[in-house]
Amino acid sequence: MKIHEYQAKEIFGKFGMPIPKGETVASPDEARNIAVRYEKPVMVKAQVHVGGRGKAGGIKFCKEPDDAFFAAQEVLGMDIKGLIVKKVLVTEAVDIKHEAYVGIILDRATKKNVFMVSPAGGIDIEQVAAETPEKIMKYAVDPLMGLRQFEALKLARFVYPDIKIARKAAVILIKLYNSFIHSDASLAEINPLVLDTDDNLIALDAKVNLDDNGLFKHPDIEEYRDLDAEDPAEMEAKRNDLSFVKLEGNIGCCVNGAGLAMATMDLVKYFGGQPANFLDIGGSSSPEKVIAAMRIILDDPNVGVILFNIFGGITRCDDVANGIVAAVEKLNPRVPIVVRLTGTNEEKGKEILQGLNFPATTSMDEVVKMAISEVTPVA
Ligand code: GDP
Ligand code: MN
Q: Is residue 189 annotated as a catalytic residue, yes or no?
């Protein structure tokens, strides 16, 4: 789950991280009121689940309260990379001397939590990684030991040669590590970590991604979920108890079981096609689930064919076939459907599908090739 900057800062704040004072509002008047109360320049910052807001014009420096009013008026409702700004964070402006990058991410390659730090913060860290990788230090943390002080100091020294500042930064790195671990995050990042003109370190921006599978332990964080900011198809899937991930291709996949769904996508790719999605309809497949699955797949305009790959075990092929019939009646799909049914009640399932004018097979290779032949290849 992604959360907003102001929410990530709340988490950081609970772990004692230095963050600028700020409040989140949804109207220009409220933004002005905060600026009046703070009696100093503020930043008005778009709250959307995407980076690079500064470059997109979603972050404004406001010297006077009236500036905050107009900045909020401009930024609220703005479209940033397809997301509409509904709230802005009004936060006291900081006099910046230096911007660094510090972050920690769960790295599947090393199977560890990896710190990345760089004295070249503020801008796109991907660009720094690509063009000047020597400016980034990476360090995989031992999961049993956690981040120890000497390790934190080594990372901090890479960013801040001045030992006095490095010592302060090391404390922040340990707090960042703790907030990452204790909220079951998959990423926690400060970009920029700022040194102000009085040599204070401040987390000026904050990004935290949470592991959905750990959220049940954190009801307070679960409340941060912003339905407006999530992919509507994925939310609809969640409501119907389906696992769905949208992809870029044109072959809509509807499969029972996560493993088989992965194998189906592999096979689609193997034969030269592009899956439009991952979709697991799960173990027992009621017609309602099949209808919901088909509706979600059809909502994607790229989809040119729907491929059902059903391996009947606990799931019965006739149940799924009934679901397909019901879904076709209800939704009148605009694209062809190809079906593979095998396993429990396969014969019954095929009988049920005979009335419809799309083919069913028992071979996985065959159904994938049939699906691919229905669409024009995408590059
Ligand atoms: P992002 O573009 O979405 O990553 O948003 P950030 O919060 O990181 O802000 C982008 C940039 O705006 C920062 O790198 C800073 O250069 C600038 N900025 C943000 N807040 C302040 C502030 O309080 N004072 C000053 N002078 N610049 C700021
Ligand atoms: Mn940033």
A: yes
In whole angstroms, give the CA distance from residue 48 to residue 208: 13
Annotated catalytic residue, options 6, 38, 101, 177: 101
| Ligand lying closest to the C-alpha of residue 52 | 1
Question: Given pLDDT bands bounded at 50, 70 and 90, which one contains residue 105?
Answer: very high
Q: Per CATH, which fold does 21-93 belong to? A: Dna Ligase; domain 1 (3.30.1490)
- Stretch 295-324: mean pLDDT, rounded? 92
Question: Cα of 164 to ligand 1 centre, how many Å?
Answer: 24
d(CA 273, CA 275): 7
Domain ranges of the chain: 1-19+95-229, 21-93, 231-373
360 versus 221: the higher-pLDDT residue is 221
> What mean pLDDT is predicted for residues 155-166?
98
The Cβ-side half-sphere exposure at 151, using a 13 Å CA radius, reads 15
Q: In the predicted model, is pLDDT for residue 183 greater than 90?
A: yes
Q: Please list, in sequence order, all residues whose beta carbon lies within 8 angstroms of the beta carbon of residue 149, skipping any fewer than 6 positions away.
A: 170, 174
Output the pTM of the full model.
Answer: 0.78
Residue pLDDT, tens place only, 282-308: 876 678 889 999 999 999 999 999 999
User: Exposure pattern of 17-31 as b/e (b: 16+ CB <10 Å)?
Assistant: bbbbebbbbeebebb
**CA 199 to centroid of chain Cα atoms:** 34
Q: Which of 5, 189, 346, 374 is catalytic?
A: 189
Alpha-carbon distance of 366 to 346, in angstroms, equals 16
Fold annotation for 1-19+95-229 = D-amino Acid Aminotransferase; Chain A, domain 1 (3.30.470)
